[in-house]
Design goal:
A two-stranded antiparallel sheet has the order 1-2. The protein is mostly helical. The chain has one domain: ABC transporter involved in vitamin B12 uptake, BtuC, CATH 1.10.3470. α3 packs parallel to α8. A hairpin with a 2-residue loop joins β1 and β2. The protein is built from 13 helices and two strands, in the order αααααααββαααααα.
Length: 331
């Protein structure tokens, strides 16, 4: 009798979790069907390819921010880090401002720079005890300052055919950037699923005190998660540079909020301990389908930011309703 009483809530919890996990994919299918019915152009093959290609950079940035959110932290550094990395790669590959032509090495340096920015954010969090949103917001400002110094009033236009080709050339109907994003999503899922870093990121978000009491040194893993996120942002900066054909300080504008939106909509909690890369990948597609669909049916692009904000509030509210009912408190 006692075991039945104990297992019943567990079964209900598992069913509730399964329902929450199924919500975003079902919403994606429903929204796609609605826009397909409203606009024949929306469901065309070319438009679907455009949606997926447009989601590439956001998917990579969202991979990074998802690991931070899984820990229950927040990361607002994406815009600054992407700007600094965009200027770095544009000045290291063939361009109109200098004689450099480092190719893949230039891309690697930009990604490593993003990793370094992320590590600094993590160190500020664990050593200086600066809240994550403040530490990363400050790091974003540092990144924008570095990017502005490198920009030096003259836009560096890239002439490197390999980097420009990533956004132009296509394979099986999709740009190379889309395939890079797919590899990043797969890599992020593998890290989340099969590495200690991914498992501990979940554990830190779910019950950091318990993890620390079990003998795990939490601080190095926090720094590692922020460094990993920074590497994804650095690659995102490279991808934007490929799309624009130039290095811009504003390369990462808006990606921080859009990535948080996609992750939350996909089912990754801001409080940590639930969600992950597959959830966030669905969230990216959901956001991009909604954005594209609104344009296709004639809604002004100026409304898109407001729509994203409403989606975030609605998604967070839906996620915390069970907790409110259980705890009867609002923090």
């Amino acid at each position: 009798m006692t075991s039945e009483v104990v297992t019943a809530p567990r079964r209900q919890s598992r069913r509730g979790a399964a329902f929450r996990d199924a919500g975003p994919p079902v919403a994606l299918i429903v929204i796609f069907a609605i826009f397909s019915a409203l606009s024949p152009q929306f469901r065309s093959t070319d438009n679907v390819q455009n949606i997926v290609d447009a989601a590439a950079v956001l998917a990579v940035v969202t991979c990074g921010i998802t690991f931070v959110l899984m820990m229950g932290s927040i990361d607002l550094s994406a815009a600054g880090v992407m700007g600094a990395c965009a200027l770095t790669v544009s000045l290291l590959v063939a361009n109109n401002r200098n004689d450099n032509g480092f190719g893949l090495l230039g891309i690697a340096v930009a990604v490593l720079l993003g990793c370094a920015f992320g590590a600094l954010s993590g160190l500020a969090l664990v050593l200086l005890k600066v809240p994550s949103f403040m530490a990363t917001l400050g790091m974003s400002a540092v990144g924008l300052g570095v990017a502005t110094l490198m920009f030096a009033g003259v836009q560096p236009n890239i002439t490197d055919t390999m980097v420009k080709g990533l956004a132009i050339e296509r394979f099986l109907g999709f740009s190379y950037l889309t395939w890079i994003a797919a590899v990043c999503v797969l890599l992020g899922w593998l890290i989340q699923r099969y590495t200690r870093l991914g498992r501990y990121a979940y554990a830190i978000g779910g019950a950091e005190e318990v993890l620390a009491l079990s003998g795990v040194k939490v601080k190095p893993y926090k720094v590692a998660v922020f460094a990993l996120a920074g590497a994804f942002y650095g690659l995102g900066g490279v991808m934007v540079t490929s799309q624009l054909g130039a290095g811009l300080v504003q390369a990462g504008d808006g990606y921080d909020f859009s990535a948080i939106t996609a992750a939350v909509v996909g089912g990754t909690l801001l409080t940590g301990g639930r969600g992950g890369i597959p959830h966030s990948a669905v969230g990216v597609l959901l956001v991009m389908v909604l954005t594209n669909g609104l344009v296709q049916v004639g809604v002004s692009p100026y409304w898109q930011g407001g729509v994203e904000g409403l989606i975030v509030v609605a998604a967070v509210a839906a996620a915390v309703i069970p907790q409110r009912r259980r705890n009867q408190v609002v923090k």
